[in-house]
Design a protein that fits this description.
Helices cover about 40% and strands about 20% of the residues. It contains 23 helices and 23 strands. Helix 8 packs across helix 14 and helix 21 packs across helix 22. The termini are far apart.
Length: about 575
């Protein structure tokens, strides 16, 4: 490691510390290069103006290891961009942590499984752990325990909890065969070709049918065609597939893409949702229907879908939003191949380890800016517009309860004039306005006479408005939280976020993704988030900003007063 520490340079952007934090100077000429090299194995934690803080977490290191990166490559990146010699303990610490992935393996053993570890003292130590020992059966030798197939998922959860994530090589049930061919000419009449990165992602997931493939997460930007990765994986596997996604709109989008781009017949594809409950060789279901139950004490009646066909593949769309009960059933179906699709591995509930254990580790990741530079997603500018709270509301805010403060700041009526200014500035463009609070959105609808889509909007009306927006017949739409997920709005140029969930990075990912599909004329996409200054909303905005920084976007701060003054004088 000594040789690798020698090529530090005081002009470099990184300060690497012994507690596994990495400080990155934003104003350094090598910042972007260093950030892109660091991102595969480090997690961004803070992103103020000048110094960003990353952390080398166990999970970020294990995800990198599962994707094929070793500790020596990580140390090389840190050494190459560090200002100072690397801490003496870091090389050994990273090597130890990275090596823990795969030290124990799950393998097939006749009609059961075995947990194998080539280090008998380590296996003995793990077998004494209360979280682990309940799932171990008969000892088969100094390096092996018999494991019941039913414990495959919960044992992996237990092992990662004690710091030794298992490599699952126990293989999968084949599933029912379903011939699937991807079209070269889509049913819509347009030529169709899987992009190179989409093909790579599907190939890496499938791994030629080997036991090292078949379970894992693909991380791609919204607008980069995660659905196509799912279709490519289905075409590789040729198996009956269950697709789980976030909403009725997302179900319709998946079915539309499957029918347009594959040779499957309509009878091969079914919807399982609150509206209709049909099962076919390819079935697309919502998380909501799976987790619905008449009473909190009851079992989940729709979990039976997992057993009603011999699924060869289960696709978890927007896996960062997977509800807790679906984790439970996923732990029981570890013999099925599982593909997670997401724009961000960050979960607001902190259950990233469960995604790693039960769906699989990150297998493929492409930085947003790389796809932007290649023209696969639109180039975007991101601006935070800071709006003052009107004087008459400042006392209400000052005396409000802690949680109400956020809502008062979010619904700041001063934001309406900023929306008016942006609608005027981008007249004729495709504009989405997204917010959290219905009262605020209804006021915007009334003032600007723009259609509003909420959870209560009938699905037929919703689909009609989305279709008219796609065709350019409607140029402005207001969306509640239903606008966060899996909506195919290919030509939105501008997104105005008037309010959001408490500092959610995943929400920021979804909303930015609404405008990132490439524009026919190569024009920029614009993302505006409106935030009330000197309030709790500003504190949460800093957290959401982490996501944009993580993806390499600069984030300009605009004063609403100055913006509106320019309008007056202009």
């Amino acid at each position: 490691m000594t040789g690798q520490r020698m090529h530090y340079d005081p002009a470099n952007p990184l300060i690497v510390q012994g507690d596994r934090t990495v400080l990155v100077e934003v104003d350094n000429p090598r910042y972007a290069e260093a950030r892109d090299a660091l991102a595969p194995f480090a997690e961004l934690q803070k992103s103020p103006e000048h110094i960003h803080t990353y952390r080398l977490t166990n999970l970020s290191l294990w995800n990198a290891a599962a994707a094929g990166m070793n500790a020596a490559a990580m140390i090389d990146v840190l050494g190459r961009y560090s200002k100072f010699p690397l801490p003496a303990n870091l090389g050994a610490d990273l090597a130890e942590t990275v090596s823990r992935y795969g030290r124990v393996q799950l393998l097939k053993h006749e009609d059961k499984l075995e947990l194998r570890c080539p280090d008998p003292p380590l296996l003995a130590e793990l077998a004494r752990q209360p979280k682990v020992r309940d799932y171990l059966g008969e000892r088969l030798g100094p390096d092996r325990f018999l494991v019941e197939p039913a414990f495959r998922g919960v044992l992996k959860q237990a092992l990662i909890a004690v710091g030794y994530p298992a490599e699952d090589l126990a293989g999968y049930t084949a599933g029912a065969t379903l011939p699937i061919l991807l079209r070269e000419l889509a049913r819509s009449g347009l030529p169709f070709r899987v992009r190179d990165y989409q093909r790579d992602a599907a190939d890496i997931f499938y791994a030629g049918g080997d036991a090292r493939g078949g379970s894992g997460v693909i991380v791609l930007p919204c607008g980069a065609g995660k659905t196509i990765v799912g279709l490519a994986a289905m075409a590789l596997m040729q198996k009956s597939t269950l697709i789980l996604t976030t909403s009725i709109t997302a179900v319709k989008q998946w079915i539309r893409e499957i029918m347009d781009k594959t040779d499957l017949a309509e009878t091969d594809v079914a919807e399982y949702s609150g509206e209709t409950k049909t099962i076919a060789p390819v079935t697309v279901a919502t998380y909501q229907i799976l987790t619905h139950r008449p009473d909190k004490k009851d079992e989940f009646p729709h979990f039976k879908i997992f057993d009603q066909r011999d699924w060869g593949l289960i696709i978890y769309d927007e896996v960062h939003l997977l509800p807790a009960p679906v984790f439970r059933v996923t732990a029981q179906i570890q013999a099925r191949r599982r593909l997670g699709l997401t724009a961000t591995l960050i979960r607001e509930d902190g259950r990233e380890e469960d995604v790693f254990s039960l769906i699989g580790p990150k297998k493929y990741d492409v930085p947003w800016r790389e796809l932007e530079s290649r023209g696969w997603i639109a180039e975007a500018t991101c601006s935070e517009v800071r709006v003052a709270l009107p004087p008459e509301l400042r006392m209400d805010y000052a005396v409000a309860e802690w949680r109400l403060k956020y809502r008062l700041a979010s619904e700041n009526p001063g934001k309406e004039d900023v929306v008016a200014r942006l609608l005027e500035q981008y007249a004729g463009k495709q504009i989405l306005i997204i917010g959290q609070y219905l009262k605020q959105l209804r006021l915007l609808k009334k003032r600007f006479n723009i259609p509003l889509i909420t959870g209560q909007t009938p699905n037929v009306e919703r689909e009609d408005l989305y279709d008219r927006f796609r065709k350019g017949e409607v140029r402005q739409l207001i969306l509640s939280k239903v606008g966060n997920f899996a909506i195919d709005l290919p030509d939105a140029n501008v997104l105005i976020q008037v309010s959001g969930t408490f500092g959610s990075r995943q929400e920021e990912a979804q909303r930015l993704g609404r405008i990132l599909r490439p524009k026919a004329n190569g024009e920029l996409a614009h993302f505006y988030t409106l935030v009330t200054r000197d309030t709790r909303e500003l504190d949460f905005a800093h957290h959401r900003q982490l996501f944009l920084t993580e993806q390499g976007y600069s984030y300009s701060i605009v004063d609403a007063g100055e913006m509106l003054a320019r309008r007056m004088t202009g």
